[in-house]
Design goal:
By secondary structure, the chain is of the alpha/beta class. Helix content is 37%, strand content 28%.
Length: 395
Amino acid sequence: MKRVAILGGGPAGAFAAERLAAAGLDVILFDEKLAWEKPCGGGLTYKAYHQYPFLIQNETPKRLMTETVLSAPRAGHVTLKLDDPLLIYSRFDLNHMLLERAQRAGADVEKARVLAMDRSSAGWRLRTSSGSVDADFCVVATGARNPLRGVGTELKAADTMSALGYYVPGDMQRIEIQFLTGLEGYIWIFPRCGHLSVGICGKGEPAAALRKRLDRYLAEKGLSTQGAAFYSHLLPSLDTGSWKQNRVAGEGWMAVGDAAGLVDPVTGEGLYYAIRSADLASQAILAANGSPEEKVTAYRRMLRRDFAADLEFGSRLAKRIFLGSFLFGTVPARMVQFTRRSPRFSAIMQDLFAGKQPYIGLKQRLLRNLNGSLYEMFMSLGFSRLVPRKAGQSL
């Protein structure tokens, strides 16, 4: 394997290009836009920048946020202090940095669209908007709207969520997350350098309805969209049954990031999984032993072991988290109330924001802490004087 073509220049494609070029392979990356914006917060969790320190140790403009406000109907709001800050980039700046790193590592970056790919005995013949190129292997990083139907995940309507938003002039010193009645999704306000990213993501509801929800929220917050750029995008959000059949690799190719459906089905967060899957794909390609077929099998196995099994489990929880009920209230409302009143539950929320708490094991941790959390809530409501005391014990 000498030449690898990277189809797509987003974070996943750019990072794969850097890894493979740095190892000495001939790497060519194709993308029709190169660095571009997306309607998302651009947030990177502690899990991402702890595992890949260059994401925080660089000169690219970014914000480090240590405070998040969570709100839910009939529960008010709570401020969560983040021990592990959330790192926020504009997607354009982050993407531009990753592409520059790929070029410095020796990758050839070409602004062109891949129109078709044909398999041959020698590898691939790629037809692009600027000509034809041969490659031994392809890394598919074309995003959720993949025009190459033979490679990458196959998304059905149930496997997607809509994300849309505005870039609004202004500044904040905190992140805001607003849960909504009857929506498998949420509204966000992420402060970036020079503006606010205000958006909504949701599953099972048309984009037009989501935009109305977002516009109402903006009006209630007193945030004007006059002169604000509007963006919309499709995000993978695989249904539970789709994870088992998810097409992440095949003969002569591996898919990474959104093109492989590797997005958190609860939060819609995909940056960490884009970078991590690109790293795993690169490791599989660069492995000294094994045929191309064995490398593909190894990549599937590495994904499953590293995080795909956890995301599949998360897909079972998503509807319960957003639309479920607990103790005669909605789950989002109880999350806000428990975070406000219980240090134990607040610690769990901290770990979820930092990416330290997997979905597998979350239920067990919640159950282990439930009695203590209920006790803490009870005490915080001013009922400590009603708790029986042992002789000589003061409260």
